[in-house]
Amino acid sequence: MTSTETAPGGTDNLSNQETDRLISSSKVEGTAVFNRGGERLGTVVNFMLDKYSGQVAYAVLTTAGSGRSEGSHYPLPWKVLTYDTGRGGYVIDLDRDKLRSAPTYKAGEEPDWSDQAFGRSVHDYYDVPLYFGAH
Fold it and tell me: Whose CA is closest to 94, among 119, 74, 113, 110?
């Protein structure tokens, strides 16, 4: 499909990496994350998918300018993010002070994603239920 063809779902002028309901992971990685006040908190460096359902469990936010290779990474439950077409990024109800206290890890020191206590700590911090695949 070319960028001028109608994508499934009837939306015109979307690239071949995006439809009205689907988006390529390559377009999500690097997307800005803002708080409700419009302050840019960082960018999505990657996201974690549930292997069985295919649904996104976490977006991983980085506050580092160069992304994946340095800085702090913050797993954000997917449910706390809302896409804002006007800003061209995701919005979360979170200020910088609360982000500084959030569960985090350094680049290259990824957590044990299978650790249920870690998953619970992330979801408890953002006051959302554990994602669908957590036991």
Answer: 74
- C-alpha pair distances (Å), 2 with each of 11, 13, 50, 70: 12, 8, 30, 36
Beta strand pairing status for 105-106 and 72-77?
Answer: antiparallel
Domain with CATH 2.30.30.240 in the chain: 31-125
Under CATH, which number does the domain 31-125 receive?
Answer: 2.30.30.240
Residue type, 134: A
The pTM assigned to this predicted structure is 0.79
The tens place of each residue's pLDDT in the chain, 135 residues long, gives 333 333 344 444 456 777 777 778 888 899 999 999 999 999 999 999 888 888 899 999 998 654 555 678 999 999 999 999 899 999 999 998 999 999 999 988 989 988 889 989 999 999 998 876 554
3-state secondary structure of 94: coil
Could you give the CA distance from residue 107 to residue 68 in angstroms, rounded to a whole number?
A: 7
Strands (E), 3-88: 32-35, 40-49, 56-62, 72-77, 82-84
